[in-house]
Design brief:
Layout lengths: L34 H10 L2 H5 L18 H18 L4 H10 L8 H11 L8 H12 L13 H9 L14 H9 L10 H24 L5 H4 L5 H11 L5 H31 L4 H6 L9 H19 L2 H23 L6 H7 L4 H13 L3 H12 L6
Family: Belongs to the dGTPase family. Type 2 subfamily.
GO molecular function, one term: dGTPase activity
Protein name: Deoxyguanosinetriphosphate triphosphohydrolase-like protein
Length: 394
């Protein structure tokens, strides 16, 4: 019998679901799923996850259904994370779970929405989408009779809050107060790196958004394939596709180049990670946490190429005048709603108005922020129209 090329031995530094540190609230184990797979399923069934379908990153939902949303982005990240974790001998369920959860706290209108909520709450504790994601899974989602939140495993919670690295230096920021409190009750080792699986999820996010921003940018007409020819990484790949397959039309050429770029980035992470594992000799998940640097990483050459690619995207896409107009409008929508809800909480829906009662101004501001952060792009636009345009009631 031949051995499957995908039967990669389990890495000694992979997380073992059978040795999970468990959940904050004791529960019987699932008969059909590992603890990490159960976490994944709980995330998929949340209201916050469903709402990602109409939360966008660069474009706004009404601009076209061909562009990525937070939901499609999260699915792409999860697919890359699962494949990469499997190839590295890590726990694919945990990597996929963290990938699916990583954007749950993003407000409507992408980074424009986050910037505005951060500004409006600067005197009330601030706003950070990573902290909001953590609050979604530990506090804001209420689906079970015996606890609030999703009661996820320690390993998933750790990966959600520190997949990009140690966060101990952030605890002095007002927006991280919720994390400080939770950590005091349920230590998450905020001064260390997270598991290799969480690090895979973080780099899978980088791989996904760099590639789909190229795809969406060309699709939106913000730049052309010819303009990408001199950009590191994508330029040489695009040139190779055109040379090898000159008969392809522009659309298929673009898609093939993006596919190859994903492959190149995944291969780079695998090579660099295996090299680091060999050099450091890590032999357990806790030894991964104890390293002074990330175990899962791009090579230095890839990081340099990605920096130049991001410079191109920043200049030609993220600050394009069309995108700037959308950002400006989005920020005004959220600013006006926040100000109104804080001044007149009685116009909030009944459930949210009840939450705002018997609170000081900072507490009411957090309720308003939570309500707005949970909105989809489309709902925020419609809610704003109902609040500020009388014609919708006629």
């Amino acid at each position: 019998m031949s051995t499957s090329p995908f039967a990669v031995p389990r890495a000694p530094y992979a997380e073992d679901p059978a040795k999970s540190r468990g959940r904050r609230y004791q529960e019987d184990e699932s008969r059909t799923r590992t603890p990490f797979a159960r976490d994944r399923d709980r995330i998929i069934h949340t209201s916050a996850f469903r709402r990602l379908k109409e939360k966008t990153q660069v474009f706004v939902a009404h601009e076209g259904d061909q562009f990525r949303t937070r939901l499609t982005h999260s699915l792409e990240v999860a697919q890359i994370a699962r494949s990469l974790a499997t190839a590295l001998g890590l726990d694919a369920d945990l990597a996929e779970t963290i990938a699916l959860a990583h954007d749950l706290g993003h407000p409507p209108f992408g980074h424009a929405g986050e910037d505005e909520l951060e500004l409006k709450t600067k005197d009330f504790g601030g706003f950070d989408h990573n902290v909001q994601t953590f609050r979604v899974v530990t506090e804001l989602e209420h689906r079970y009779p015996d606890f609030v939140g999703l009661n996820l495993t320690w390993e998933t919670l750790e990966g959600v809050i520190k997949h990009n690295g140690p966060v101990i230096h952030k605890l002095g920021q007002p927006s991280w107060k919720a994390i400080s409190k939770y950590d005091g009750e349920y230590g998450l080792k905020l001064d260390t790196w997270a598991s290799a699986e969480a690090q895979v999820a973080a780099l899978s996010d980088d791989i996904a958004y760099n590639n789909h921003d190229i795809d969406d940018g060309v699709e939106a007409g913000l730049f052309t394939l010819d303009e990408l020819m001199d950009v590191p990484l994508i330029g040489p790949i695009l040139a190779a596709v055109r040379s090898e397959r000159p008969e392809l039309d522009a659309r298929i050429t673009r898609l093939e180049a993006v596919r190859r770029m994903i492959g190149a980035m995944v291969d780079d992470v695998m090579g660099e990670t295996l090299q680091r594992a060999a050099i450091t000799g890590v032999a357990s998940a806790d030894e991964v946490r104890a390293l002074p640097h990330a175990l899962v990483s791009f090579s230095s050459d890839m990081l340099e190429d990605l920096a130049r690619l991001r410079e191109f995207l920043h200049a030609r896409m993220y600050r394009h005048w069309r995108v700037n107009r959308t950002r400006s409008q989005a920020r005004r929508i959220l600013a006006e709603m926040f100000t109104l809800f804080l001044a007149e909480p009685e116009v909030l829906p009944s459930e949210w108005f009840a939450k705002s009662q018997n609170r000081d101004q900072a507490g009411r501001a957090r309720v308003v922020c939570d309500y707005i952060a949970g909105m989809t792009d489309r709902f925020a636009i419609e809610e704003h129209r109902k609040l500020f345009h009388l014609d919708v009631w006629s």
